[in-house]
């Protein structure tokens, strides 16, 4: 079997493996990327990592997420089907994610959504993503657009600033007892909730982060408390994703996120970034490292700038940004 067919075989197994096989598949992908991603290989070599001697997840080097701003992160040579670009301000350099196969992204977010929420067709799906709709190359817009299409509901769709129309649609859906997902960037949800506090019994409200300087920074707890009161909901849901990843984690309550089976969180020591903190030590926070196996053609091992806490069952909590890190356009609120 030649190398190309071997690599294609890896791609077909990303979403179809027993959970016990995660570690072995991750190490297989690490070696593939070490061989075929010159930037990642140079980074690993600078750390004196011998790829052939990497046997555990803790031994894998995690590429700093800022490399996506300054380097072309690509495993194998290809013309990308799409280039996702992060949001940001005019003073920031945006990350770019070169995606070889958009179907990997589509499979990832659809299978992930189905794992946590079921069939999109059972929902009316409404996207309140004004700042993202106004620019190109947003992975979040592509995801929500496809979920809207999959829902097949005639009221599903995007809204910019038509809050009056959105309020009317939600009230109509509530009267019909239609299961609905309202997914929105945080500042837009806050603006809408302030102007139209509507009791929602059949609607899931999901925030994706994103204050973008539009409001005074609030903690996630403050945001959720405000939205819960405005919409008379017991919980607010959250999505955790980023331009540099092709997978997402979800929180259904209390800001505790869960990953799909092809995504995994580890924590590193802020003072020693090469030290991985044991998940059994859930009283100690660290900085979030992410393994996203769907990132096979970029880099699956990302060292983020988010502080977090990891629990023994693999769930995690985002505590904010690491000190002195850049402010991201879709950054989560610090606590």
Protein described:
The protein is an alpha/beta fold and 335 residues long. Mean pLDDT is 88; it is low at 1-5 and 326-335. Strands 1, 4, 5, 6, 7, 8, 9, 10, 11, 12, 13, 14 and 15 form a 13-stranded mixed beta sheet that branches. Helix 2 crosses helix 3 and helix 9 (186-195) packs parallel to helix 10 (220-231). It has helices spanning 3-13, 22-36, 38-46, 67-70, 102-117, 130-133, 139-151, 163-175, 186-195, 220-231; strands at residues 63-64, 82-85, 96-99, 124-128, 157-159, 180-184, 203-207, 237-240, 249-251, 256-258, 263-268, 276-277, 286-292, 301-310, 316-321. Helix 9 (186-195) links the parallel strand 6 (180-184) and strand 7. The chain is globular and about 60 Å long. The chain has two domains: 3-84 and 259-320, no CATH class; 103-255, Rossmann fold (3-Layer(aba) Sandwich). It is 32% helix and 21% strand. It is built from ten helices and 15 strands.
Which features characterize this protein?
335 residues; alpha/beta; Rossmann fold; 2 domains; two-stranded antiparallel sheet; disordered N terminus
In short:
The protein has 335 residues and is α/β, with parallel strands linked by helices. It has helices at 3-13, 22-36, 38-46, 67-70, 102-117, 130-133, 139-151, 163-175, 186-195, 220-231; strands spanning 63-64, 82-85, 96-99, 124-128, 157-159, 180-184, 203-207, 237-240, 249-251, 256-258, 263-268, 276-277, 286-292, 301-310, 316-321.
């Amino acid at each position: 079997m030649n190398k190309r067919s071997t690599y294609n075989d890896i791609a077909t197994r990303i979403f179809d493996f027993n959970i016990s096989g995660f570690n072995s598949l991750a190490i297989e992908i690490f070696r593939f990327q070490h061989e075929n991603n010159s930037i990642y290989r140079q980074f690993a070599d600078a750390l004196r990592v011998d790829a052939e001697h990497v046997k555990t997840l803790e031994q894998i080097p995690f590429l700093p997420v800022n490399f996506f701003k300054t380097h072309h992160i690509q495993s194998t040579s290809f013309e990308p089907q799409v280039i996702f670009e992060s949001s940001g301000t005019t003073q920031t350099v945006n990350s770019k994610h070169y995606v070889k196969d958009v179907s990997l992204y589509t499979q990832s977010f659809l299978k992930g959504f189905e794992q946590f929420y079921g069939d999109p067709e059972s929902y009316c799906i409404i996207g309140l993503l004004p700042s993202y709709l106004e620019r190109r190359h947003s992975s979040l817009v592509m995801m929500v657009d496809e979920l809207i299409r999959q829902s097949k509901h005639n009221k599903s769709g995007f809204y910019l600033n038509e809050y009056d129309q959105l309020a009317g649609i939600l009230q109509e859906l509530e009267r019909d007892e239609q299961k609905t997902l309202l997914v929105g960037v945080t500042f837009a949800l806050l603006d809408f909730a302030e102007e139209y506090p509507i009791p929602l019994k059949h609607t899931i409200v999901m925030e994706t982060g994103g204050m973008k300087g539009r409001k005074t920074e609030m903690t996630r707890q403050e945001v959720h408390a405000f939205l819960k009161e405005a919409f008379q909901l017991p919980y607010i849901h959250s999505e955790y994703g980023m331009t540099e990843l092709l997978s997402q984690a979800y929180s259904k309550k209390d800001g505790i996120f869960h990953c799909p089976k092809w995504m995994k969180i580890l924590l590193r020591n802020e003072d020693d970034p090469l030290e991985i903190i044991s998940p059994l030590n859930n009283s100690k926070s660290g900085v979030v490292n992410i393994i996203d196996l769907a990132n096979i053609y970029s880099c699956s091992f990302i060292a983020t700038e988010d502080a977090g806490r990891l629990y023994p069952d693999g769930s995690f909590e985002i505590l904010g940004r690491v000190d002195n890190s850049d402010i991201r356009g879709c950054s989560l609120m610090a606590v």
